[in-house]
Amino acid sequence: MSNTEVEVADINIDVKHLTRVEGHGNIVVNMSAGKVEKVQWQVPEAPRFFEAMVRGRHFDDIQTIVSRICGICSISHSLVATKAVENALGIEVSEQTDMLRLLMHYSEQLQSHVLHVGYLVAPDLFGAPSVVPLISQAPDAVLTIIRAHRVANQWSEVLAGRITHPITIVPGGMSMIPTEAQLGDLAETLKATIPDLLTVADVVLSVAENLPAFDRETEYVSLKQDNPPTYTFYHGDIASTDGYTAPVDKWESVANEYVVGQSTAKWAKWHRDSYAVGALARFNNNAELISPLGKAVAEKFGLEKGCCNPFMNNVAQLAECAHVVESALELIDKLLTKGLKKEKVQVKPRAGKGTAAVEAPRGILFHTYEFDDKGDCVAANLGIPTNQNHANIQKDFEAFVPQFAERGEDALRMGLEMLVRSYDPCISCSTHMLNIEFVK
Amino acid sequence: MNKETIVLGLGNPLMGDEGIGIKLIEMLQSASGDFPEADFVDAGTGGMSLLHLISDRRKAVIIDCAHMGTEPGTIRQFTPDHVKTVKQLTHLSLHEVDIIKVIDLARQLGECPEEIIFFGIEPETVTQQMELSNILTDRLAQYIETIKTQL
Question: Can you tell me the distance from the alpha carbon of A302 to that of A315, in angstroms, rounded to the nearest whole number?
Answer without folding.
Answer: 10
